[in-house]
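Onboarding guide, step 5: your first structure request.
Type a short instruction followed by the sequence, for example:

Predict the 3D structure of this protein.
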Amino acid sequence: MPAFLGLDIGTTSTIGILIDDRGGTLATAKRPADLHSDDVNWAEEDPGQWWRNVGEIARELVASAGLAPSDVAAIGVTGMLPAVILVDERGEAIRRSIQQNDARATRELDAFSAGMAEATFLDLTGTGYSQQLVGPKLMWLRQHEPEHFQRARAVVGASDFITARLTGTLQVEHNWALESGFVNLATGAYDPRLVALAGIDPSLLPPIRRSEEVVGALLPDAARHLGLREGVPVVAGCADHVASAFVCGASNNGDLVIKFGGAADILLSSDRPVRDRRLFMDYHIVPGLYFPNGCMAAGGNLLNWIIANLAGAEASKAAEAGLSPHQWLDRAAADRRPELLFLPYVLGEKTPLMDPHARGTLVGLGLHHTVADIWRAALEGIVFGMRHHVDTFLDSGLTVTNVRAADGGAASDLWLQIAADVLERPVTRIDRHPGSSLGAAFVAAMGTGHLADWSLIETYVAPGRVFAPRPAESAAYARAYANWRETYERLKTLYPRLHDDQVDTAPPV
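The system replies with structure tokens like these:
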């Protein structure tokens, strides 16, 4: 029986899965990934840690599933995008990755966007100017780390880096390329006009490959690292948010997926591309479909920050009760009234604001509040951001029907009930959903011909509990959401001044 290995290079962890060709999950494993934020709006990770994780995970999976290494028939890798990784002539990372939610390159973004009217850029790429674009980050590296930039022979994404280490081939999957801001949506190819905005050598950009394309075979050294046989075919891989939404069964026009991961992704399945500066535009896993989508820079990583910095005593209580800190705080927050407003912009904000200057903001704090109140406000604030995206989709003429919830945070009953109340729509939890790694493994099976129908993904997952909106709570949240939106509008001109003050007064390096 062939098995297929999927690897997810995620924001907070590296996850692996082995599946068979009959709808079964054979084993899963994960390792933590560390996010580094050494300066204002910085978000970096160590590709070397990802590679170590991949080796440990693959060995654990094969052992847990009771398989022989030769049973693994194909490999696919997924990852957050568009991370920026400079690689040298040996294919090794020159420095830590600059993550997709990193917002350091604000001045470079201004210079980049000055080269082309946004309406033209939007028409070419399907998205507007934002902190997520690769060009401004490369401009920042060229200006601030010229020794690293000069050594670079290519720039790739997270999954592309691991795929290259596995096969020795350099390429980027088509959604990393599209979201980089260098690709013409109409042609699917790099556009010289777009590349020229960053002033980079086009040779830094590797060839573009579709997710299911086989791009190489497992090298001997990589095979030893993973404990597998050499020569296993490897596909180009896929974007994590796209893979996860596909796994949820979002393949009909109007299917909405909300992802409760380290960042919060919101994807809407569509039979047509949409050009809206407030959104990102991606290809669907299924050829011929599209995923207009948004990504909030902070989701679960904001909750992890609260636990690390504000909830020390609560974490101890959770351990005594045999619960995770997340579960303990959910229990503590369940009966709290929603009194606080939390703007979750701790890494700036991507869609739909496209504002790298935005800051995390807590409004209404009193001495009678506890960390449980702050926790609840953070859960609500992230869902308010999802509601903002739904409003944006509707404003763009799209249809939002079924709502599905996935990823780690979807295990929280409290969070999904808040989502149903705020979105004023039923929210279905997807069970047996190990995340984006399943999408990567399935794509590998499709790309190597072991599976022949994209709809077979439905055999690997199942819909779970449905959370229905409660009219009274929805009405209360509608008022709170209006206040939440107004808070940003009142503060958006202040945020850039805070950033300028920090830059002007920063100590010399």
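Each response can be followed by summary notes, for example: Confidence is low (pLDDT under 50) at residues 503-509.
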